[in-house]
Amino acid sequence: MTARRGAIHVPGVRAASIRVALAATAVVGAAYLLVAVGVISIVSRNLTSQLDSDLQATLQHVATEPDHQGGPGAGGFEPPIKTPFDRPVIIWTVHPDGTVSSSGVNAVLPSEYQRVTDPQTVTIVIGSVSKSVRIAGGPVHSEYAVVGEDTQNVRETQENLILAEVLIGPILLAAVFLGAVAIGRRVAAPIEHARQRQLEFTADASHELRTPLSVIEAQTSLALSQDRPVEWYRKAFTQVDAESKRIRRLVEDLLWLARFDSLSGRPDAEPVDVGVLAAQTVDRFRIVAEARHLKLEVHATSGTNIVTVPPEWLDRLLGVLLDNACKYSSEGGSVSVTVVSESGRTRLTVDDSGPGIPEDKRARIFDRFHRATERPGGSGLGLAIADSIVRATNGRWRVGASPSGGASMSVTWARSFGGSGEPAPARNAVAD
Fold first, then answer.
1. 188: nearest Cα among 9, 33, 317, 382
2. Cα gap 208→372, rounded to integer Å
3. What is the mean pLDDT of each run of 10 residues along the chain (432 residues)?
């Protein structure tokens, strides 16, 4: 049976990533707004503090001037030649008789501000224009001085900051949104892919189990419908037995894959002589080979053929490869197992005399429930199990044709010396 391969559920990934991106953008937008308001507040406070310092410096300068002798109506105090922040300063002089004079500027100081002390921002008419002015005052000699400075610098800075934040904000939020969408899709795609594979796996497993169960159900229904000859019952039970064994093998493979997928870590690995283990596995399959008149042989080169892997995994891998080789080899053919060491690696090769694996089907032979042949008997899980083992042990596949024209399945691992395994790269399936 050919496995049904569904595409990743892209709309679901896209919708989920967009929802996450919108939520992330909203959070960043709220944080950006708070930061923007905070920046404007801090900058405004600092600039206002500079104005206040400027006003106090001006008051101190005025206090150092000699007392005016012109009496009421005199010109009053003049501003310093250069203020600390090099900005024009207005000085109002409140004379003892209640009259007010200003320093060269036509600016009217409202009566409620003629005795101001602490700095505050007020609206003053200068010429014919109302302006926001920061003022402060204090007694100087026999008079009272009020100094003021235009807050235009503060307003311009605030406007520039707001403009910059308004321009930067949408760009930042757009970048956050697009980045969150990209990251969300990147993170969600493997999860969705795993979910899709799980759904496909469940569907394929159900399909594989349904076929033998249907056969068993049909046979039992026919057997119970009416009396049959003894020979008919014998054939029926033989078929039921075959289908039951098929179910058992399928369930065992499914349970093995489920346990393998749920492992948080692999079993303890230990140095294993691949040649010795291959010879032991071949001995187990000799009865199977004799039943089909197959020539089964094993060749292991002398020397170190030791790799560090979990022994039960390697035994399962050999069992899968030999089972497939014996199953698909033509009757009277041959199966050969070879173990050699080359360039610091140990190679295990199983060759058979079966129909082989067409080149256009080699890329999918490790997919679960995929079968490269329509020949009955298999479930399509054997090579999926083998591939899981090879990947988990950092092995490399090489799939090709055997000298007899059948299939050649080869795996290499980093060879171990004194029980310590060399680092091995990830699996790389190669088709000869």
1. 9
2. 16
3. 42 76 92 93 92 88 65 47 57 88 81 91 86 91 89 89 93 91 80 70 69 84 88 89 83 78 69 90 90 90 84 90 89 91 89 86 76 58 85 88 89 71 39 40
Residue 381 to residues 132, 208, 253, 288: CA-CA distances in angstroms? 83, 11, 7, 20
Q: How far is CA 78 from CA 71, 84, 91, 145, 147, in A?
A: 15, 15, 7, 11, 11
Q: Which two tokens stand for residue 13?
A: 């990934």
What's the rounded Cα separation, in Å, for the pair 414 and 308?
A: 8
CB half-sphere exposure, 367, CA atoms < 13 A? 20
Question: What is the rounded distance in angstroms from the CA atom of residue 30 to the CA atom of residue 112?
Answer: 42
Give the containing element (helix H, strand E) for 332: none
Token pair listed for 17: 């990533």
Residues 6+ positions from 400 with CB-CB distance below 8 Å? 407, 408, 410, 431, 432
- HSE (side-chain half, CA atoms, 13 Å) at 315: 11
Q: What is residue 328's predicted lDDT score, i.e. its pLDDT?
A: 87
Q: Model confidence over 118-130: pLDDT tens digits?
A: 999 999 888 788 8
What is the C-alpha to C-alpha distance for residues 265 and 236, in angstroms, rounded to an integer? 45
- Rounded CA gap, 352 and 328, in Å? 8
CA distance 150 to 400: 87
Sequence letter at residue 405: G
β-strand partners of 102: 92
In terms of pTM, does the model score above 0.85? Answer: no
pLDDT at position 379 is 60
How many C-beta neighbours within 10 Å does residue 279 have?
A: 15
Phi first, then psi: what are they for 312, rounded to 5°?
A: -65, -30
pLDDT at 36: 93
Q: Please check whether residue 396 is in contact with residue 414, taking contact to mean a CB–CB distance below 8 angstroms.
A: no
Buried b (16+ CB within 10 A) or exposed e, 120-141: eebebebeeeebebbbbbbebe
Smallest CA-to-CA distance from 74 within 47, 48, 102, 110 is with 102
Q: How far apart are CA 56 and CA 317, in angstroms?
A: 89
Only one residue has tokens 């039992």, namely 220
Burial of 17 (0-12, 13-18, 19+ CB in 10 A): buried
pLDDT for 78: 55
Decide if 117 contacts 56 (C-beta within 8 A). no
Do the beta carbons of residue 29 and residue 174 sit within 8 Å? no
